[in-house]
């Protein structure tokens, strides 16, 4: 073996020893990268040693090249193994800093919409009194929504201003009262039903939205009197608004009931005093009363349109707006809040 080859091979061996002796010096992945460049980079120590290869005798070159490859592979393997050790140490450190007893991030829980809450509560109270649940279409025909309820074609309630028409004889129901008709057509008396749902009107301002929610109640039997209506609604009101709530019936008019009444309750804000904090109560405007629903004894004409004999049966009906009840119960001043879906508003009901 020529002296040149011998010193070339020794140079490579000492390079490998040099690298081995650096074990433990690189404490981070960055430092290890620098070490890799120092030995294996394009201008690194191995590349420099290879410069002498060209000066060797042609017969020595194969042995020299083979050795150079081996040294490159062993240095690479060495640095790779250190890298693996560093990686393992880093992830071990991360795991030891991780505290599994720390509380996790709280999942964001939603809440029921105040309209749903009140709807559920009102339905619960009424089903508790024996009323059964009925459901029907929001796209309703003229006959169920108006005609069968004793609302003739010339009646102001049918005015284009209030009603959203789908076609000449089809409307978006303007109230849940049409469900009285559907329920009576389905079964013979006695019956006691409630029909909650969405209703639609061509109306939009501070106190009206084109869609809102109502619940309808209807009870028909022999010998049903205004006293039954009054008793039922008084129990209902006191369950929803509290046992001390006063109830007052005020004469009114609805085409489908005779006589008709509107029901007021003692103001939820001022308790009926008419003042709150020395000022005129903003809810009842100083009257001490707030209106909550319409009701009455079923008009004989309504019974006739479903084939019930008005000489045999009597009944009462009532209808109330859910948003209105929710505003009173929760002291909400602006109807539009129900439909803006502002999370800051909604999460108060969680
Ligand atoms: N349908 C009426 C409305 O939308 C509410 C109503 C009043 C329903 C009197 C009734 C009733 O059942 O008897 O304003």
What does the model show?
The protein is 41% helix and 21% strand. It is rod-shaped and about 130 Å long. The chain folds into two domains: 3-96, no CATH class; 114-349, 2-Layer Sandwich (BirA Bifunctional Protein, domain 2). The strands form three sheets. Strands 1-5-6-12-11-8-7 form a seven-stranded mixed sheet, sandwiched between helices. It has a three-stranded antiparallel sheet with strand order 2-4-3. With 350 residues, it is of the alpha+beta class. The chain contains twelve helices and twelve strands. The model has no long low-confidence stretch (mean pLDDT 92). 3,4-dihydroxyphenylalanine binds next to β11 and β12.
Mind telling me the CATH superfamily name of the largest domain? Bira Bifunctional Protein, Domain 2
Physical arrangement of strands within the biggest beta sheet? 1-5-6-12-11-8-7
Number of domains: 2
Helix content percent band: 40-55%
Structural class: alpha+beta
- Tell me about the largest β-sheet: 7 strands, mixed
CATH architecture of the largest domain: 2-Layer Sandwich
Query: Tell me, what's the shape?
Result: rod-shaped
As residue ranges, the low-confidence spans are none
Radius of gyration over alpha carbons? Answer: 43 Å
Strand content: 15-25%
The name CATH uses for the topology of the largest domain is: BirA Bifunctional Protein, domain 2
Q: Could you state the order of secondary-structure elements as H and E?
A: HHHHHEEHEEHEEHEEEEEHEHHH
Distance between the termini: 89 Å
Bound molecules: 3,4-dihydroxyphenylalanine
Discrete helix count: 12
What do the pLDDT scores average to?
A: 92
């Amino acid at each position: 073996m020529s002296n040149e080859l011998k010193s070339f091979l020794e140079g490579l061996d000492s390079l490998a020893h040099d690298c081995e002796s650096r074990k433990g010096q690189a404490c981070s992945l960055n430092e290890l990268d620098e070490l890799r460049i120092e030995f294996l980079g394009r201008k690194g120590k191995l590349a420099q040693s290879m410069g002498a290869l060209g000066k060797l005798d042609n017969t020595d070159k194969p042995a020299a090249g083979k050795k150079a490859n081996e040294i490159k592979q062993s240095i690479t393997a060495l640095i790779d193994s250190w890298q693996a050790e560093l990686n393992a140490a880093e992830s071990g450190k991360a795991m030891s800093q991780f505290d599994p007893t720390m509380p996790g991030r709280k999942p964001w829980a939603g809440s029921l919409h105040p309209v749903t809450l009140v709807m559920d509560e009102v339905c619960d109270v009424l089903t508790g009194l024996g009323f059964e649940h009925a459901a029907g279409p929001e796209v309703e025909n003229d006959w169920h929504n108006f005609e069968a309820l004793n609302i003739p074609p010339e009646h102001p309630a049918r005015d284009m201003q209030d009603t959203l028409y789908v076609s000449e004889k089809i409307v978006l129901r303007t109230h849940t009262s049409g469900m009285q008709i559907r329920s009576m057509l389905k079964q013979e008396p006695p019956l006691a039903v409630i029909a909650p749902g969405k209703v639609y009107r061509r109306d939009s301002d501070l106190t009206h939205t084109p869609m809102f929610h109502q619940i309808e109640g209807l009870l028909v039997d022999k010998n049903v009197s205004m006293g039954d209506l009054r008793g039922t609604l008084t129990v209902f009101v006191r369950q929803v608004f509290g046992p001390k709530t006063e109830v007052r019936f005020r004469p009114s008019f609805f085409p489908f009931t005779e006589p008709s009444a509107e029901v007021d309750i003692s103001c939820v804000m001022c308790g009926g005093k008419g003042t709150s904090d020395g000022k005129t109560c903003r809810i009842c405007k100083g009257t001490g009363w707030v209106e909550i629903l319409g009701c009455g004894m079923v008009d004989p004409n309504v019974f006739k349109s479903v084939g019930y004999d008005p000489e045999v049966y009597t009944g009462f009906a009532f209808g109330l707006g859910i948003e209105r009840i929710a505003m009173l119960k929760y002291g909400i001043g602006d109807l539009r809040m129900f439909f803006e879906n502002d999370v800051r508003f909604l999460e108060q009901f969680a």
